[in-house]
Amino acid sequence: QVQLVESGGGLVQPGESLTLSCSASGLAFSIYALGWYRQSPGKQRELVAAITEGGTAHYADSAKGRFTISRDNAKNMVYLQMKSLKSEDTAVYYCNAGYYSGTYNPYDFWGQGTQVTVFS
């Protein structure tokens, strides 16, 4: 049984930083691409960042230059370092396991999400 457990969300002010973590179990972690999605009320879930099995990172335009995705295959962990946070980054953040073929394609493996709220 695949389990993805996100952590690290919280309340921050604009301009501050947060690092999200996702612990994975029940899958051959190193062979999957991984992604971070977010969803805010009334909006569709959107891909923020993805990292291939080989460690190549890809970002949504909204995340470029501010967010960094990384993975630690030895620990079955994926991270999302977020800097210069803005109010529009407020959302529930989810990690996902999938595959990358030109674009990121999610499998139906989702965690429960972690809330990030950026307020002034």
Uncertain residue segments: none
Counting DSSP H or I runs of 4 or more residues, the number of helices is 0
How many angstroms separate the termini?
Answer: 40 Å
> Tell me about the biggest sheet?
7 strands, mixed
Shape: globular
Oligomer classification: single chain
Mean pLDDT: 97
Helix fraction by DSSP (H/I, runs of at least 4): under 10%
Content of β-strand: over 45%
Could you tell me the radius of gyration in angstroms? 13 Å
- The structure class reads mainly beta
* Series of secondary-structure elements, N-terminal to C-terminal: EEEEEEEEEEE
Based on DSSP secondary structure assignment, what is the total number of beta strands?
11
Quick recap:
The protein is mainly β and 120 residues long. The protein contains no helices and 11 strands.
